[in-house]
Every structure is written in C-alpha cells, then in structure tokens.
Design a protein that fits this description.
Elements (H helix, E strand, L loop, with lengths): L1 H6 L4 H4 L12 H18 L2 H7 L5 H12 L4 H13 L7 H18 L8 H20 L6 H9 L6 H34 L46 H19 L1
Helix pairs in contact: 3-5, 6-7
C-alpha cells in the first residue's frame, strides 16, 4: 500500500508531513478530497475484516497509523521460520535460476523483518559487506555436488565476487553443461539406433539400376566397369557358387568396395 500511495505522490497525507493546519482555509476542500481518495485506496487494499472497521473513518492518517501499529511488528516466529528455510534450502532437481529465485525471496522477506542498519558509517558498511558474504556462502552451500569444482574455485578467489556475479558465472556453467549433455545424448541416440537397426549399416541405394552391368545400387554414370577398378582391389569368390553367379556377385562386390573407398 505504501508503494502505491508513494507512486501517486500522496504519502505525506498518511505519514504526517502534510497537516491540515499547515494550509490555509482556501485549501480545506482540496485536502478533504485528497483524504477521501487515499481512504478509498486503503479500503481497496485491506481484507474484508479490516474494511468493516475503517469504512466509517474520516482521517486517512489515523487509519494508516492504526494499521501500522497493529501489523508493522517484528514477528520472531516468522524470522525463525525464514532463517530455517534459508539454512536448509538446496538446489535439488531445480535449475540454478529457480533455486536462486527462491533463496532471494527468502532474503528479501528476512531483510524486511530484520532490517540492517541504514546509516553510512564505516561499521554499517562492514556489516552490509558481511551480510552479503553470508548470503553468498548460503547460495554456494545449497548447490548440488556436481558444482563442487566451480564452488571451490569461487571460494579460492581472494576477493570473493558479489552474489549476482557468482550467479552469472554459475548460470554460464549450467548452460555449457546443458549443451554438452545435449550433444552427448544425440550421439548416444544415434549409436543406439544404428545398433538396434543393423540393416541401416552400410545401406545402399538399391533402387538405382545400371543398364550396362545389370546391377543395382548405382547408375551407368557411376559404373566402374565403364570407368576403372582400383589397382589393388581384390575380391574373394564365394565357395559353392557357380562361375556365372560368382561373376555377378564379384561385380557387385567391386562396386560396393569402390563406393566404400570413395
């Protein structure tokens, strides 16, 4: 609610900086309209139980003060629960992006309930740096063991990078690992397909036909009877087969061998 009212430049009407007595009588109606508008905004944001209690209120500042007194309190039980979740959260099956987003939401809520000092003194700056280092360690602790090497390298750096820089480095590692796993998966799938389909190994284009040597698997343009055979080509005849059939088989074998050589 505070962000919405601040965005409309009306925060002074609820935090006490804009008081009715600070303005002249000519602006009474103006202030009354602004007060009514802010009251309507607050009523639209609160639950039904709270709405029934403030519907008859006439001062936005007093309503805001009452809500702040009742709800803007540090809840130690909630702080305990958040700190427990931060200490036990791990990456698991989530991606680094999803894991980091969950952890960041817990950090934001914890900082809201237990805010750090806001002054600019040296001690406050040291405390802020210490808290950022603690968040970095919490992030690294929850990573999977597969990132052990990257985690060790980051911890060995003398000037430990900030949490956002560490997140970028690990996201790059995750992206590279995904690409490697994808390539490996494609190779394994191809090898498995070939192993399960031995007929595909060395598969020829047997729908082609040569009208010169009367053999399949090539055309007249690629017929080695019309071209040449390689000088060191040797072919063994199959036993128990007639000479005429062996000649056909021999020619087919020469063509296949020469194609494999090419």
């Amino acid at each position: 609610m505070r962000i919405a009212i601040l965005g409309r430049n009306k925060l002074g009407f609820i935090d006490g900086t804009c008081k009715r007595e600070d303005f002249g009588p000519n602006l009474v109606d103006f202030l009354g309209r602004r007060n009514a508008i802010i009251l309507s905004w607050i009523m639209n944001y609160v639950s039904k139980e709270l709405y029934s209690r403030i519907v008859y209120s006439t001062n936005a500042s007093s309503v805001w003060g009452d809500l702040k007194e009742r709800f803007n309190k540090i809840d130690c039980s909630r702080i305990f629960q958040i700190q427990k979740e931060i200490a036990t959260i791990t990456q698991g099956t989530s991606s680094i992006s999803a894991y980091f987003s969950k952890l960041r939401l817990l950090w934001v809520e914890f900082d809201r309930l237990a805010p750090i000092p806001g002054c600019d003194c040296a001690k406050s700056r040291e405390f802020v740096v210490s808290m950022e280092r603690l968040k970095l360690l919490q992030f690294l602790i929850g990573l999977n063991e597969s990132y052990e090497q990257a985690r060790s390298q980051l911890l060995m750096i003398v000037s430990v990078p900030i949490i956002n820089k560490t997140y970028s480095i690990l996201m790059e590692r995750e992206s590279q690992r995904s690409m490697v796993n994808a390539d490996t998966g494609e190779v394994k799938a191809l090898m498995t397909t070939r192993a399960n389909n031995p007929a595909q190994k060395g598969k020829k284009n047997y729908y082609l036909y040569c009208d010169y040597c009367k053999l399949k698997g090539h055309t007249r343009e690629g017929c080695y009877k019309l071209i040449v055979y390689l000088a060191d080509f040797k072919y063994r005849k199959k036993p128990g087969v007639g000479a005429a059939q062996n000649a056909v088989v021999e020619d087919q074998g020469r063509h296949d061998a020469l194609e494999n050589t090419d």
